[in-house]
């Protein structure tokens, strides 16, 4: 499995981004889970390699039990008709010297809403949260075969930090 690691240094407050008719809010409660799972299924339906569909149990294990994740760090983009159209999660890992290492996880936009700036909006929102918390270096991993993701991250300023590496598993499944 080919994994590409990328990083962006924030040197100034992230630019304010808007998309007409689209609003971003944090995950609220368990009622948001089913919509988020449906979004992930829709967004990754054509992913190659494919992603096993999430279940509610996967979600709870990943976001409610995992120490680096929490639902309040999932950001949801809704269109003007209250449809969930995109999402991103911020993972904050404790590093050395009480440092916090932020990372982008599970960025997804429904196919029918792509190329309207929704992922750019979500990532700018996540970066603003990081900036306010004093976090200046944002990391992520993506699958080298996910071309749309590679092009997107390049467009919004993320640079490769490591060579593509072979790894038995990455984020092609919620496991
Ligand atoms: C990657 C993804 C999140 C991008 O979402 P999006 O809302 O369409 O992206 P945006 O509209 O904000 O794109 C911003 C810029 O990124 C670049 N970009 C995004 N998708 C692109 C594509 N398919 N081809 C080329 N450039 C692309 C463009 O420069 C674009 O600006 P432009 O439309 O003005 O040219 C979306 O394609 C997706 O959900 N893919 C499947 C899931 C996935 O791979 N997630 C990432 C896992 S790490």
Short description:
With 175 residues, the chain is α+β, with helices and mostly antiparallel strands. The chain has four helices and seven strands, in the order ββααβββαβαβ. The chain has one domain: Aminopeptidase.
What does this molecule look like?
The chain is α+β, with helices and mostly antiparallel strands and 175 residues long. It has a single domain, classed as Gcn5-related N-acetyltransferase (GNAT) (Aminopeptidase, 3-Layer(aba) Sandwich). The chain has helices at 33-43, 56-65, 118-132, 147-155; strands spanning 2-9, 23-26, 74-78, 84-94, 100-109, 137-143, 159-166. A 7-stranded mixed sheet has the order 2-3-4-5-6-1-7. A hairpin with a 5-residue loop joins strand 3 (74-78) and strand 4. The mean pLDDT is 91. Bound molecules: coenzyme A. Residues 43-44, 107-109, 114-120, 142, 146, 148-149, 151-152, 155 line the site of coenzyme A.
Give the SSE map.
Blueprint: E1 2-9, E2 23-26, H1 33-43, H2 56-65, E3 74-78, E4 84-94, E5 100-109, H3 118-132, E6 137-143, H4 147-155, E7 159-166
Parallel strand pairs: 5-6
Antiparallel strand pairs: 1-6, 1-7, 2-3, 3-4, 4-5
């Amino acid at each position: 499995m080919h994994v590409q690691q990328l990083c962006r240094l924030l040197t100034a407050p992230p630019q304010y981004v808007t998309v007409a008719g689209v609003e971003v809010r944090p995950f609220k409660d368990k009622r948001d889970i089913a919509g988020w799972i449906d979004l992930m299924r829709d967004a990754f339906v054509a992913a190659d390699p494919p992603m096993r569909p999430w279940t509610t149990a996967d979600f709870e294990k990943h976001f409610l039990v995992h120490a680096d994740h929490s639902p309040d760090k999932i950001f949801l983009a809704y269109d003007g008709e209250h449809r969930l159209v995109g999402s991103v999660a911020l993972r904050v890992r404790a590093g050395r010297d009480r440092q916090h290492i932020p990372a982008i996880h599970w960025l997804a936009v429904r196919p029918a809403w792509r190329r309207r700036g929704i992922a750019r909006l979500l990532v700018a929102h996540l970066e603003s949260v990081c900036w306010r918390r004093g976090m200046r270096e944002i990391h992520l991993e993506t699958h080298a075969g996910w071309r749309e993701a590679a092009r997107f991250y390049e467009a919004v300023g993320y640079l490769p930090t490591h060579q593509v590496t072979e790894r038995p598993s990455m984020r092609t499944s919620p496991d």
